[in-house]
Amino acid sequence: MALFDKFKGKKKGDNGEDINVTEISDEVLENEEEDGADNEEEAFEIELSDENPELEDEDLTDDEDGKPAKKGFFEKLKKGLSKTRANINDKIVTLIKSNRKLDDDFWEELEEILIYADVGVNTSLNLVSNIQKKAKKQKLYDSSEVMDLIKEEVTNLFNNYDNSINLTSSPTIILVVGVNGAGKTTSIAKMAHRYKKENKKVILAAGDTFRAAAIDQLQVWASRVGVELIKHQEGSDPGAVVFDAISAAKARKADILIIDTAGRLQNKTNLMKEIGKVRNIIERELPGAPHEVLLVVDATTGQNAISQARIFKEATSVSGIILTKLDGTAKGGIVLAVAEELEIPVKLIGIGEGMEDLRDFSPTDFIEALFG
Q: For residue 62, what is the DSSP state?
């Protein structure tokens, strides 16, 4: 297919030049770290400010169980996906109105819309191929009849995954990985805040001992949320921190232990080895753990997120994705690519800076907000 050759491994960068979206290398990690780490530390000061209304909990009304109201969350999700919706749904609607026939031009333009929305080349081609086959089988000839098929095929991408967080063990150990700047520290804080509100005893572990700022940030968040942090000095062995944290979790009968990890070392190989070492210690000290390995990915990085996820998946057996900064980006189509190409469930999504804005990922809500 000419379109596949046109897009394979490439997409347009902000400057209009073709960039490779399939190559996995140290550069993928390094570029994201350098672009994001400074921003994360700058944002840290803003996020902790008492004057920042984004961090207040009043933006959502709690239901009887103490959980944020679903209606308020859905409206916020829909608002957060507005740019992605314009990039996918609105363009598909325009295509349907301008091209009534389900001909080759229609299918090719549909592929282009999905590819440029960061759904990914392979995922886009597979989706359109499946939709085309169903349209032919159902003898559909008018483009206005195809929108339900599109929603159906997108829904099918998520059918084989369990998007829930595994909290069945006590203590449950959640290992959090990802490059600096993706929102790893704040995601940990928001998880701790959530579980503490659910009356669970939570302990955090500062496993990124390579950056003093990482330890300091996590300490401030731990104090603010009201949970214990196990930490050592900068430059100490992360494995020792993890060992002490597991011992503390057992002794204090904690329900959940959330472990931060390094997001930047000299190169990809060293980073993956260090995270692998931490995982080995967890497995040794508590057989069956970690119960979740959650990779934090910045949605605004688009297809680079896929490259990062492949690297971490190989090194740490990632069990789920935390997709941050989904609000305000036009690249929310990456959720579909993650499900199709990586076969890793998206478990949590970030749709704002507030403490309540890291939520369970619901495929049904996501699709309704995307196409609604």
A: B
User: Rounded to two decimals, what is the model's pTM?
Assistant: 0.82
pLDDT band per the 50, 70, 90 thresholds, residue 100: confident
Residue 99 pLDDT grade (very low, low, confident, very high; cuts 50, 70, 90): confident
Identity at 214, one-letter amino acid code: A
Question: Which two tokens mark 205?
Answer: 């572990």
Look up residue 301 and give its DSSP letter: G
Answer whether 307's CB lies under 8 Å from 28's CB: yes
Its sign, for the CA torsion 210, 213, 215, 217, is negative
Express each pLDDT in 113-158 by its tens digit. 999 999 999 999 999 999 999 999 999 988 889 999 999 999 999 9
DSSP 292: E
Do 320 and 292 contact (CB within 8 A), yes or no?
A: yes
Q: Are strands 358-360 and 346-350 parallel, antiparallel or unpaired?
A: antiparallel
Residues 176, 228: Cα–Cα separation, whole Å = 17
Q: Do residues 218 and 185 lie in contact, with contact meaning Cβ atoms separated by under 8 Å?
A: yes
Euclidean distance between CA atoms 113 and 115, whole angstroms: 6
Cβ neighbours of residue 59 closer than 8 Å, sequence gap 6 or more:
72, 76, 354, 356
Dist CA 358 CA 353 (whole Å):
8
